[in-house]
Amino acid sequence: MESDLYQQLIMNHYREPHNHGKLDPCTCHAFGKNPLCGDEVSVYCIVDQNILKTVQFEGAGCAISQAAASMMTEMVSQMQVDDLYDLYERIDQILKGELESGELSGELEHAYAAIAQFPMRTKCARLPWKTLVNALQGKTENISTEND
Amino acid sequence: MESDLYQQLIMNHYREPHNHGKLDPCTCHAFGKNPLCGDEVSVYCIVDQNILKTVQFEGAGCAISQAAASMMTEMVSQMQVDDLYDLYERIDQILKGELESGELSGELEHAYAAIAQFPMRTKCARLPWKTLVNALQGKTENISTEND
Amino acid sequence: MDLNQIRNDFPTLQEEVNGKRLAYFDSGASALKPRVVMDRLAQFYEKEYSNVHRGVHYLSQVSTLAFEDVRGKVQTFLNAAREDEIIFTAGTTESINLIAYSYVLPYLGKSDAILISEMEHHSNIVPWQLIAKMNGMDIKVVPVLDNGALDMQAFDNLLTPDVKFVSITHVSNTLGTVNPVKEIIEKAHANGSKVLVDGAQAAPHMTVDMQELGCDFYVFSAHKVFGPTGVGVLYGKFEVLDQVKPWQGGGDMIETVSFEGTTFNVLPHRLEAGTPNIAGVIGFGEALDYLAKIDVNWRYQHELNLLDYAMKGLKEFPQVRVLGTVPGKAAVICFVIDGVHAHDVGSLMDMNGVSVRVGHHCTEPLMKRFKVPATARASISFYNNKEDIDQWLSVFPKIFKFFG
Amino acid sequence: MDLNQIRNDFPTLQEEVNGKRLAYFDSGASALKPRVVMDRLAQFYEKEYSNVHRGVHYLSQVSTLAFEDVRGKVQTFLNAAREDEIIFTAGTTESINLIAYSYVLPYLGKSDAILISEMEHHSNIVPWQLIAKMNGMDIKVVPVLDNGALDMQAFDNLLTPDVKFVSITHVSNTLGTVNPVKEIIEKAHANGSKVLVDGAQAAPHMTVDMQELGCDFYVFSAHKVFGPTGVGVLYGKFEVLDQVKPWQGGGDMIETVSFEGTTFNVLPHRLEAGTPNIAGVIGFGEALDYLAKIDVNWRYQHELNLLDYAMKGLKEFPQVRVLGTVPGKAAVICFVIDGVHAHDVGSLMDMNGVSVRVGHHCTEPLMKRFKVPATARASISFYNNKEDIDQWLSVFPKIFKFFG
Ligand SMILES: Cc1ncc(COP(=O)(O)O)c(C=O)c1O
Ligand SMILES: Cc1ncc(COP(=O)(O)O)c(C=O)c1O
After folding, report:
1. What number of other Cβ atoms are within 10 A of residue C227's Cβ?
2. What are phi and psi of C221, to 5 degrees?
3. Could you tell me the CA-to-CA distances from D223 to A50, A108, C275 in Å, in that order?
4. Burial, B78: exposed, middle or buried (Cβ in 10 Å; 0-12, 13-18, 19+)?
5. Is C294 on the interface with D (CB under 8 A)?
């Protein structure tokens, strides 16, 4: 049972996060926090010619939020910003459980699908994504996914 | 079934109330009203040497409230005021259904006991009594029995 | 639709009262509940219950999802544009008070007015009186015509630029009058006024479509819509609702709390403080599901047919006077009998198994306007049948005989 | 008392979650319900239901009597001097807001202060912040010591003459600390301050005696006392309660309504506007009847025995830190695990059938004071047993292994 939510892949990302650390200078960044549980994520990006050249994160919180941030950085680096918005929507669908497992590609998507089985925890996985999108769109308001 | 609440005696008092009409001059009087249903009773007394020499009422409202007022005037006239307070308590007990039928005396008490079987209507029967007591005690605040 | 089958869904209709078949005509005060509501409540408390919104464990997850799911059902019921336009309250009364204290009180002042009507329920009068004492605003009242219609000419005249808010009932709980709320909303908006519609007596009977009506706020009670007690709905158009200030403070309505400064949550949570009536809301969702299976037009037409049948029957009894006779009215019959007090009417009806409401129906100004101290009211719901009406009609001769 | 028999009374305890036996440690957020409550709700809605207070017909009479009867049961439960000292609300949160808006706001001003504590639930912080913005009063905060006790020395110093109101929790929902409310009330009264006690976490566990405590207001929620959701209690000492201004306007709370001037009803009705949560209150009465059959001292001692057993078990795990260790505390264990986030603790507990609450427990200032972003909390009720504790303890090694 533990394995469903805390799959090996997620735990690996949690224990050894990829693309971790502050990025300074950067072209944009944002901060997200879920006040109820205290999860925090900062996302830093270097965007060049509409391509996300580099993305890094810092944060503190539960395994899901931090692993989701790390996995996210894997998925989005070198992406066209527009394609990234499409991916964001797709991740959202996965987290809502709207895609069948046959429609998923790659182990990272499967990891998000595992989180989707725990509706109270999907907000943790959504936090880094929403923070990234807000960074790219230059939004500065408080970001939380607790009421999404 | 009708007969339980609207016994012949009660209906007689309703149709032909005793001691009806304003008393002027009088030694004390009071006005009671139940706003929810609109029942109104005015009670007028002439008290002499602590004896209720004359008591009359005026009013408008349901059969129970008006008959109860009429029956009350029958029961209390020529009474010592202190005895009257005891009777008031007794009527209250009857209306709460706290006395067995064997403990009742006279047809008027039995009539009140019939009303007691209809808890939502006992406030109608209580209105003239509370108004009378307020008159005797010189109280002038609004009288209602809807929340007793 | 099979009416007998529908009646079988309501356990109370199978009961006898005072040894008689029950003819329940008090749905305007509160509606009976279909069995599925009780079953859902029991199942929820037995197998799924926990507090919502603040947990990750299984039961709190099941409860939260079931609770939030009902918001979507209410959105569908009202055809609201967004789910976060639906606020759960304790009832119509609380919904109106929330808007009074947190929208009208802070935004209106001494030079402003609000417009209500003479046929409002106390819930749509007293909150405005209470806040008017605080902010000094004026309360203007649209009179009611002899037939029970709103005086729309007076409405037009009263709708002056100082009127910043209009609060009006969709259907009168006493007269049955169906007000032209769409016209009222349009005129009010043209005047720059916001509008609250009290839908307590409309929601149980007819289609109420927020996007079609265009009102700023719409309120009703679950217990009159065949759901549990202790649940109400406040609908608000998002841009307007978002201007409503926080009212009750507590859990769930905050973003973060500190002694230096607290920040507030987004809609709908900002206006829902503390543990909500979780089971009540979930039972209400079940009631809405049940209702959705019965065509609303069939329901309303059936009620109007019974009204028609009842009014024809009443023609036999010239001693009976009906208040509210405007064409197109809903199936509510408010009546007085010459020389017999409403309470006595109610008791005699009750002894014959007929439940009618007596008193002022929380519309004292209307009683005064029609110069009656109290009335009896038979309110018809879709689960009533002709037999109920016949039973009701059969009591009148007994009343006349008894009090004649 | 036979614990197995008691456990059989609670249907949810017979459920499995995630394929495991349920060990429910979330009663602090909301308590499970004994079967008699669900049965009473179903029976009431099926055979007795109608609206209260405004009818003479049979069902409205049965409902009204059953509803008002519960007021007496609450009076007995609280050992209140009078029945009309009991006001039904929608919950603790609403009870506190009522006092904030209708007692503290109108009577206190810029030169006054109210005193709360650092361990208050958001429901006992935010309402005061909201009204302080309106009347300019000051909010003073009694700090909490490292062991979770209230700093009574600071309390003494903060209780200056400007403090007109003290609002304090009886038992902390996060730390389990039982505050010396009697001492607080006496000192406050000597200072001329009125006192509200938030009994949300005391009422489910211990004797709460109004005449013994002498507080001015006492509030709690039915859903934490094994009753339905959507019901709360506001107790007020009559002379003080009678000074509380009308708050929500609507049906039942008025005497007469007119556009010239409305007069208000007597207590308790004046503070209960609109159709109340009739069924919820009646279900709550059933919960109180059930509770009355189980000796309160036995219940509380049993909970403390389990607390003791659990704390001994925890000694094996030095990685686990418990917040709130003051002697005489109630059976609540708030804990953090080095290096593991509370949400992950909660999810792993849940996967093993153990329901604990995670987050800030609506006590953010307390989280800040103890420098933790969130904690896990196991709250013990009288229906818990040793097996539950063993099951809870057995998850810790799994957590360490998994996140180690
Ligand atoms: C100490 C305390 N006060 C207030 C509350 C608020 O209670 P409710 O959410 O039922 O209004 C709670 C429960 O969450 C509590 O534990
Ligand atoms: C038109 C109208 N408005 C408001 C209310 C008040 O509803 P509630 O008592 O459920 O708050 C009622 C019902 O009594 C009503 O009929």
Report:
1. 29
2. -110, 135
3. 54, 42, 9
4. exposed
5. no
With cut-offs at 50, 70 and 90, classify the pLDDT of residue A1. very low
Q: Which residue, by CA, sits nearest to atom 14 of ligand 2? A: C29
Band (pLDDT 50/70/90 cuts) for residue B139 is confident
pLDDT along chain D (404 residues), means of 10: 95 95 98 98 97 87 94 98 98 98 98 98 98 97 98 98 98 98 98 98 98 98 98 98 97 92 93 98 98 98 98 97 97 96 94 96 96 96 98 97 86
Q: What is the pLDDT of residues B3-36, one digit of tens each?
A: 678 889 999 999 999 999 999 999 999 999 988 7
- The string of pLDDT tens digits covering residues A16-57 is 999 999 999 999 999 999 887 789 999 999 999 999 999 999
Cβ <8 Å between A2 and D373: no
For residue C168, give the nearest of C192, C152, C145 by alpha carbon: C152
Amino acid at D106: P
Delineate the domains of chain C, giving CATH numbers in brackets: 3-25+296-402 (3.90.1150.10), 39-292 (3.40.640.10)
Query: 3-state DSSP helix/strand/coil percent for chain B, to nearest 5?
Result: 50, 20, 30
Architecture of the domain delimited by B2-135: Alpha-Beta Complex (3.90)
Residue C57 to residue D376: CA distance in whole angstroms:
11
Closest by alpha carbon to A64, among A130, A143, A22, A126? A126
Fill in the amino acid letter for A125. Answer: A
ipTM: 0.94
Handedness of CA D156, D161, D162, D164 (dihedral sign): positive
Contact C27, C355 (CB under 8 A): no
| Known catalytic residue at D362 | yes
Q: pTM for this structure? A: 0.96
Sole residue written with tokens 């009753």:
D227
Mean pLDDT throughout A84-92? 95
* Domain residue extents for chain A: 2-135
- CB A46, CB A54: distance < 8 Å: yes
pLDDT band per the 50, 70, 90 thresholds, residue A3: low
Residue C334 C-alpha to ligand 1 middle, in angstroms? 44
Query: Rounded to whole angstroms, how far apart are CA atoms C338 and C316?
Result: 15
Phi-psi sector, C374: left (phi>0), alpha (psi -120 to 50), beta: beta
What's the Cα-to-Cα distance from C103 to each of C97, C156, D273, rounded to whole Å? 10, 24, 19
Task: Give the whole-angstrom CA distance, residue D320 versus residue D337.
Answer: 5
C-alpha distance from D111 to closest chain C C-alpha (Å): 19
- CA D280 vs. chain centroid, Å, equals 16
Separation CA D300–CA D39 (nearest Å)? 26
Which residue among D93, D126, D150 has the greatest number of ligand 1 atoms within 8 angstroms of its CB, and so is best to mutate?
A: D93
In angstroms, rounded to a whole number, what is the distance separating the alpha carbons of residues C292 and C76? 10
